[in-house]
């Protein structure tokens, strides 16, 4: 099914696609100049140290000024920046002028605590306004934030704090999840408890959210409200070079160690603002934008903080889960605030499908005019349901493909310009150059309909402003991870498989490496494996993502029990339970394997490589593929007939 051109009026921005192709750098310079620069740049791109790009490098700007102060100066101080809705039903309305005062106070408070440009702050908070205020206060000071998703456990938090050598952690006493006030600060205390003498963390700032009891370390812990109460609500932002790092965001790769992806001020903000405006056809004075992602993920950074605020938009931030107090919550919020643009993940759309159309049908959703999807491939059925049931069968749906490393959206239909197809990310945005290639780097031809479409690798063949500037503290790993597959051509390999349809439009099919995508959350197989082998009962572990109707993928683990731990066939369910709990405790409940199979051996090639493809076949209940390269094909019989 092809949906005709949308009814959305064509975007205000002068977006000349031909210009973007003929003069890519000129196009990006024009996008960058939509921001306020304290010192204009003279060079758009310096790529002499490829793949480490420098965009607008001699320009200077302040990101927080661009997200707040310039809107207040333009007379929009009274415009609502954030309609915040707490899970228990409390709410706060924050104007751009309020945000300016609070971010200024927070910036002054951080300065009093000794933070200076270049320092790192870990933010471990639920979706409360203080999370955004803290991020912007860091940005205002040239301090790098690293936001750690509130669902991550102490162990994962510790790794990130240590890798970033953070000086300050900002957290809360607790958070509301499904109506329960769950403690959050104990995870910080635990993360900081090992080798405190070596810790770089001088202070922990604690936001009071749930009012629960908290253990207190004197001289280290401070209440957010105390430091804010004595801080002045005025602060003059300093302009920083465009290439000043803005934040680190840790993401899973193909090894157990998470990577601190580095983004910088000028290029990142340029693409965040540009994409947020054109993809969502934003009308800042009238739209109410809602991106449902948590700020712990890149989507929350780019489309719940920097994109909307740099464009002076009004947005909704919701603290809790979609099913609290019941399945109507999101639709009630859309109705209550008159949300016009709703941006969410396929996994939630599939959950809504399961709950049934009668839930959204009970609400007046006529304020909506545009729908978006992100985080994983959206299956055509979910796309159609989204458009039909939430979008009254008329709204444009934009399926946006991008990654933590790309910083902002890269491939997406533009409402009002391109027609959309259910399940396709369509074409690279103006200014972006990406294509699908085969093993040798040859561009794949569009499907001609006569045969199965060919799947290839998605590559970005030209630098883009919001591209990652590296992996924190590991220059070589950045090159090896993303730029070695097509090193000769100098292309960025995204790790995704994709195909062209007969019109040459792009369909992203998902990861082709050992990264899983569970309900839109990126988890590496290696990270889960390393948590499993940390258990004394486990000698070896292999983890694969198996297709799942609702969550896209589910985690299946295969473990070999240590000899000292009795015969594998005797292992009881208690240990399997322990293993699952261990992964949840070490990484996060979202990484908990759905199934743990105890097997006598792992299937390996002669060179010792685990054959995950075969394990995926087993996990998905398929006939086994080619087993001829296995050292011992009989291993599989045991695996299949095992538990
Ligand atoms: O596999 C792709 C999938 O999510 C991966 C990136 O994950 P992360 O860095 O956590 O960022 C998620 C939010 C941008 C990609 O490599 N992905 C993301 N968006 C899409 C997608 N797959 C298909 N279609 C999408 N629209």
TrEMBL record:
SUPFAM superfamilies cross-referenced by the UniProt entry: Acetyl-CoA synthetase-like (SSF56801)
Gene3D superfamilies: 3.30.300.30, N-terminal domain of ligase-like
UniProt keyword terms in alphabetical order: Acetylation, ATP-binding, Ligase, Nucleotide-binding
EC number, UniProt record: 6.2.1.1
Domain named AMP-dependent synthetase/ligase: residues: 71-472
All copies of domain Acetyl-coenzyme A synthetase N-terminal, residue ranges: 19-67
UniProt KW ATP-binding keyword: yes
InterPro entries cross-referenced by the UniProt entry: Ac_CoA_lig, ACAS_N, AMP-bd_C, AMP-bd_C_sf, AMP-binding_CS, AMP-dep_synth/lig_dom, ANL_N_sf
CDD domains, alphabetized: ACS
Family: Belongs to the ATP-dependent AMP-binding enzyme family.
Name under which the protein is recorded: Acetate--CoA ligase
Organism whose genome encodes this protein: [Mycobacterium] nativiensis
């Amino acid at each position: 099914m092809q949906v005709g051109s949308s009814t959305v009026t064509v975007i205000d921005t002068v977006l000349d696609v031909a210009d973007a192709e003929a003069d890519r750098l000129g196009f990006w310079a024009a996008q960058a100049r939509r921001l306020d620069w304290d010192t204009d740049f003279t060079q758009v791109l310096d790529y002499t140290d490829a793949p480490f790009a420098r965009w607008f490098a001699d320009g200077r700007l302040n990101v927080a000024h661009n997200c707040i102060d310039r809107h207040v100066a333009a007379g929009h101080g009274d415009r609502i920046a954030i309609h915040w809705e707490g899970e228990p039903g409390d709410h706060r309305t924050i104007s751009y002028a309020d945000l300016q005062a609070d971010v200024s106070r927070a910036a002054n408070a951080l300065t009093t605590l000794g933070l200076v440009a270049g320092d790192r702050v870990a933010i471990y908070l639920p979706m409360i306004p203080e999370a955004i205020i803290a991020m912007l206060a860091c940005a205002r000071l040239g301090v790098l934030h690293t936001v750690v998703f509130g669902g991550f456990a102490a162990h994962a938090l510790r790794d990130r704090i240590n890798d970033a050598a953070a000086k300050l952690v900002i957290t809360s006493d607790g958070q509301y999840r499904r109506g329960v006030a769950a403690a959050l600060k104990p995870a910080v205390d635990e993360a900081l408890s090992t080798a405190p003498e070596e810790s770089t963390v001088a202070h922990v700032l604690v936001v009071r959210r749930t009012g629960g009891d908290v253990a207190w370390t004197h001289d280290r812990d401070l209440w957010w409200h105390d430091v804010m109460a004595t801080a002045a609500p005025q602060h003059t932002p300093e302009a920083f070079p465009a290439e000043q790092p803005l934040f680190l965001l840790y993401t899973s790769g193909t090894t157990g160690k998470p990577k601190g992806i580095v983004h910088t001020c000028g290029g990142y903000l340029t693409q965040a603002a540009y994409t947020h405006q054109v993809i969502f056809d934003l009308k800042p004075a009238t739209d109410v934008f809602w991106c449902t992602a948590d700020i712990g993920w890149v989507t929350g950074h780019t489309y719940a903080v920097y994109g909307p605020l740099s464009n002076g938009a009004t947005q909704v931030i919701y603290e809790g889960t979609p099913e609290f107090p019941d399945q109507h919550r999101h639709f009630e919020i859309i109705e209550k605030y008159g949300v016009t643009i709703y941006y969410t993940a396929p996994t939630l759309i599939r959950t809504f499908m399961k709950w049934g159309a009668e839930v959204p049908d009970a609400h007046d959703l006529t304020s909506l005019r545009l729908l978006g999807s992100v985080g994983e491939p959206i299956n055509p059925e979910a796309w159609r349901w989204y458009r039909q049931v939430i979008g009254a069968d008329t709204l444009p749906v934009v399926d946006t493909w991008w990654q933590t490393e790309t910083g902002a959206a890269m491939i997406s239909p533009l409402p009002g310009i391109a027609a959309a197809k259910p399940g396709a990310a369509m074409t690279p945005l103006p200014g972006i150059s990406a294509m699908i290639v085969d093993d040798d780097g040859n561009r794949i031809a569009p499907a001609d309909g006569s045969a199965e479409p060919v799947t290839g690798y998605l590559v970005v063949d030209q630098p883009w402003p919001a591209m990652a500037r590296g992996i924190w503290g590991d220059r070589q790993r950045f090159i090896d991870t993303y730029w070695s597959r097509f090193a000769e051509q100098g292309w960025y390999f995204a790790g995704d498989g994709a195909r062209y349809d007969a019109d040459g439009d792009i369909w992203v099919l998902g990861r082709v490496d050992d990264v899983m995508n569970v309900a839109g959350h990126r988890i590496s197989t290696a990270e889960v494996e390393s948590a499993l082998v940390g258990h004394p009962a486990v000698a070896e572990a292999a983890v694969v993502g198996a297709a799942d109707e609702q969550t896209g993928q589910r985690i299946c683990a295969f473990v070999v029990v240590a000899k000292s731990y009795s015969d594998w066939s005797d292992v009881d369910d208690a240990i399997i339970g322990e293993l699952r709990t261990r992964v949840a405790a070490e990484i996060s409940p979202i990484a908990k394997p759905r199934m743990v199979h105890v097997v006598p051996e792992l299937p390996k090639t002669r060179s010792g490589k685990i054959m995950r493809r075969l394990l995926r076949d087993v996990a998905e209940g398929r006939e086994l593929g080619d087993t001829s390269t296995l050292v011992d094909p009989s291993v599989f019989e045991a695996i299949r007939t095992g538990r």
